[in-house]
Amino acid sequence: MVQQQQIRWGMVVDLDRCTGCQACVVACQTENNLPINTEDLFLQRRAFEWIRVERYWEGSEYPNLKARFLPMLCQQCTNAPCEPVCPVYATHHDTEGLNVQVYNRCVGTRYCQNNCPYNARFFNFWEARWPESYYNYLNPDVTVRGRGIMEKCTFCIQRIRRAARAARAQGRALRDQEFQPACAQACPTGALVFGNLADPTTRVAQLARDRRRYRVMESLGTEPGVIYLKKVDPHAEEHA
Fold first, then answer.
1. Which pLDDT score is estimated for 236?
2. Alpha-carbon distance 28 to 181, whole Å?
């Protein structure tokens, strides 16, 4: 019998590697059956994506400006502000540290969206529509969410469950880097690293102990499961 693993799924984002290419955004859209963001949706401020790459500029004037990129997704908070405000318990914490969203229980109050400091939840205003030729590309492992519910990143939970079933069938524990969420798999620079933070031997746990580590708005006490590594500034290193 396989010994029960202690699991706390998490992600490390190395900002020194991120180039802002948006490959993670496209991969997430495709893997999780997100509707196509058309121009009219953007104009109405109704477009959404489960992971976005925020861009910041450093410097005072062009052309000396420097672009900084910050991938932002659901932070999978240990003390998630979105959970206690849901009146139907559609958003809750599971035993593996994931902030899970039960879509067929959600009634669309949007309380969780208002209480999320990371703006990582999105309301589905319309029924999703794709061109007829696109229907063969939809992921059969992921439901197509209907109008009136909240959506969010779940670290591609369908991949987690598939890998867990395969490992259980083989009578073994999950291996580190055995699978990755779509965003981490698509990242060409390896800026996103996913794994079990509860196991100190995993790559993600080792990176989480890096001296460059920080969490976004950590002072709020949400204890996110997403850890960022600061971008290396060679000029600062020279003057340190």
1. 56
2. 8
